[in-house]
Amino acid sequence: MTEAPTYAFGLGARRGVAAQEVVELVRRVAQTHNVDLRDASLCALESKAQESGLHEAARQLNVELVFLPLAALRARKAPAATHSPRVQALFGVGSVAEAAALVGAGANSRLVAPRVTTPVAACALAKRADEDNS
């Protein structure tokens, strides 16, 4: 069994999001925070599992794509750094991207980068707790 990635990119996306939008956003956040994509995964809501743009983005970035249940995101919503009233009303969390990053990075993970948004997607970055020596 391979070790879990150190970083998790949490994604929020509108229906029909293009892979290139996600790829550019993830690369921008990774570059800003000096994260090697080989040590990262992409995490999104399980309701987005049919989004071909997310699957294609993960393929282009060569990273694992993990879909998470909404209940897990709601359980980690407190540490989110940003809050969207619209997202809160729809999903019960202030930021899907931030909650997905925190859940994807595991228990006691910490948010490295609050969500960065485009008109069609959002990306946040969390780091696994046991790699907290940076």
Describe this structure in words.
- The structure is a single chain.
- With 134 residues, the chain is of the alpha/beta class.
- 34% of the residues lie in helices and 25% in strands.
- The protein is built from five helices and five strands.
- The protein has helices spanning 19-32, 52-61, 70-75, 85-91, 96-104, and strands at residues 7-13, 40-45, 64-68, 110-117, 121-127.
- The protein has a five-stranded mixed β-sheet with strand order 3-2-1-5-4.
- Helix 2 (52-61) links the parallel strand 2 (40-45) and strand 3 (64-68).
- Helix 1 packs across helix 2 (52-61).
- The mean pLDDT is 91.
How is the topology of this model organized?
Blueprint: E1 7-13, H1 19-32, E2 40-45, H2 52-61, E3 64-68, H3 70-75, H4 85-91, H5 96-104, E4 110-117, E5 121-127
Helix pairs in contact: 1-2
What is the number of beta strands? Answer: 5
Low-confidence stretches: none
Note the gap between the termini.
25 Å
> Can you tell me the overall shape?
globular
Could you spell the SSE succession in H and E letters?
Answer: EHEHEHHHEE
Proportion in β-strands = 15-25%
| Percentage of residues assigned to helices | 25-40%
